[in-house]
Amino acid sequence: MKIGGFEVGPWAVKEEGNKRHLIFDCRDCVYSSSIADDPACRYHVFSLLQEVEVDDIVLAEVYERVYSEEQKKLLEEISRVAQKLEIESVWSYKFLGDAKIEGEKDFGERHNTIVKITHDTLLFDPIYSYLELLRAISKERERFSSEDKEHYSDVYLRTLLYIKKNLDSTMLVQKAKQILLKLKTVPDTKEMYKPFFEAQVKPSFIGSRLLFEEEEKLELLDEYQVKDTTVQIFKHPNKPQKLYIVNPPEYSLPPDKYFILSKTREIVASYRPGKTSLSELAKSRKYFERVYQSTIKDIAKENNISLGNDEIIELSQIVARYTVGYGILELLLSDRNLTDIFIDSPIGQKPLYVIHSDFGQCETNILYTEGEASSLVSKMRAMSGRPFDEAHPVLDFDLPDMETRVAVIGPPLAPSGIAFAFRLHKVTPWTLPQFVDVKFLTPLSAGLLSFFVDAQATMLVTGSRGSGKTSLMQALILEIIQSTRIIVQEDTLELPVPYMKNIGFNIQRLKTRSPIAAGGTSSEVAPEEALRTALRLGDSALIIGEVRSKEARVLYEAMRIGAAGNIVMGTIHGESAYSVWDRVVNDLDVPNTSFKATDVVVVARPIRFSGSLQRNRRIVQITEVKKHWIEDPEREGGLLDLMSYDAKKDELELLEDNLKESEMFSKISKMSGLNLEEIWRSIRMNGSAKEFLVEMKNKNSIPSLLEAENAVLANNKLMLLKEDQLEEHGSVDYEEVLGEWKNWVKNHLIKGIIAKTKS
Length: 759
What we know:
The protein is of the alpha+beta class. About 40% of the residues lie in helices and about 20% in strands. It has 25 helices and 27 strands. The strands form five sheets. It has a nine-stranded mixed beta sheet. The chain has a nine-stranded mixed beta sheet with strand order 21-20-22-23-19-24-25-26-27, sandwiched between helices. Strands 3-4-5-6-7 form a five-stranded mixed beta sheet. The chain is elongated and about 120 Å long.
């Protein structure tokens, strides 16, 4: 089509995320696709903005230049002024002067000047037009004050000032004036558009846009590398949440590499994997990257583009990311500092946001698109074999290659469109020493919980979402003696079972039906049936990922009769020991007599000190469930706090007076033959050991000392040294055991880690 006599390529207005995008197909355009550099390109955009209402502008060829909503407004204002002046015909007879007073001898020159400013150049080069307007005004004012007054026209000057008033109201002219006032000479206007219309450039096959703030306003808090991308965390002066900024290499490549990427993606589309399992896909990733490398080499050779081997590998990884991978989301899913990723509907309206383990909720600079969301849903639907449509608007799925669980919702449940919630699992489990290091709990409370695990107590860990209850469960599992068989039952795969197997635990996972699985479509086993099966798998420690519904009755039946054999632990949503009782008895319909099989409830909670925006995870309560009450444990003294959190001191304190009322310690004393003094020596030894590992980690700068692999070795050694004393002396000197263990940590464990690191 033609606009103003110029041939313009196809264009369309695409609506997405409640935003309208004006998209130009510039592949066959004879002009350069740059608003900053090309006057003809500016003219095309200005002209269409007089016809359509849009939010941003995209010039698409091999790569896309995306102009933001703010940049679009700069253009739109000029376009509206030009349209207004054209409608008013400011170059017409009545705006040029008063023929009765002046005659018409100067009307031709005035007409040409106004037409040039408002029609011929305004939509090509508005800054140049404005400068020409200023010259015309200056010239007319000079005529008024000079001997050339006979050529002056009050009507004509008012017309020029009216045009100036309209242009002065636009942000583009205001911004240009700020620059011009700082310069001694007027520059070539060709260079003046670059500061205002620097586009975001991205490959045409990538949907997501990246948004960038003015960095001088931001405070850099952290910077680190994830794959081939630098991640920066900023503090914004006017926003409560931090900013999580990424700039992947595919958004800043030269045009020849964009050309290669686009051609490679076109070619390899024919042999993209179809319906394949995620495990197969993860294994085949390297294969596809090798295929892409060969294709890239061929395309570069055919088009005389010089590429080094490292460049070929980089481009192949980018193509893999957007074909067999998860696109730009893959970078976030690979950042193990993140715990959650959220993409809310309507997609494309707001940037996605993340939960960072150190900085809490952060707003990213990634604007996801509906097209990418639909493509991701199609991939997940094919891989899972589960439906996702209006009849089944929920898809809950595990991405084992990314150690992530994703929940997708769509219409009619989510009326504004598809939305995603990703929960990233820690690849290595948390350990009690790591929790001591970050003040999630105290050394003494770590020793107490470790003792309860060793004493085969039944424990429930409770807290709100994001309070750390699942992470604490991971750490408690690591305190189980490695000779014990463990059965883990989960509806979402959050516990790092494969890693635990690799470091020596005898552990079996059971995967049960998700609570939000599409009704009647899942072939997975119901939680209560899986639990009955688990109880038939022999004497084992039993871990329930989360107690949610009907399985609670089966669990408590097992706990009451001792059929589970060993320690039983689970997590459950709640905010206190009493709320756990209320949930289990009143919501999940477990009898009071069965609930009493619970020995200990551990409560985790996010704390905001002094009303701060920062959320700090803490254990706030360790409570014993006593056995001699009938209806209400709180009213009848059935819930005994052993440790309670003091926010002023930021410490979980031992309530020594309450220990006198404890039934559990008396029971453990009878069953183990240890008196109360010996029990507490054992607990304090456990706590001191955790604290010592933290001290050694900080002193020697060895974070890996607290990781599961080494923390479990240290725990095993402590138990073996204690066992040696029991066999040799029939009793334990806890101080001697701790001293001997500390020497082993210094002379063997730490030296081994350092040697391994060097090698």
